[in-house]
Amino acid sequence: MSDKIRKFKENVPGKYYVGEECIGCTLCSEIAPDNFKASLDEELAIGYDYVCKQPADAQEDELCAEAMNSCPANAIGKNEW
How many domains does the chain have? Predict the structure, then answer.
């Protein structure tokens, strides 16, 4: 699981986040397009995804959890409060 200390600043606050381990494969934004969005770091010329919207219902939460479990870089984390 991603280190929450190294999460991208673009993540909206909440349950899920994407960290610097992201390799920019965009799998999460394919699985949960309402919750994850691709970005391009102009300085590094690499892409990465971030959480643009936290899940608003059980279906979105399931898709976010699926994205987290499918992430090949284990870059998606979940806050445990």
Answer: 1
Amino acid at 73: A
Give pLDDT tens digits for 23-81: 999 999 999 999 999 987 666 567 899 999 999 999 999 999 999 999 999 999 999 86
DSSP for residue 9: T
**Integer Cα distance of 78 and 35 in angstroms:** 14
Residue 60 sits in a domain whose CATH number is 3.30.70.20
Write down the pLDDT at residue 45.
60
* Mean pLDDT value of segment 7-27: 94
* Chain position carrying tokens 């673009």: 10
Burial class (CB in 10 A: 0-12, 13-18, 19+), 54: middle
**Cα distance between residue 7 and residue 50, in whole Å:** 9
Rg (CA), the chain: 11
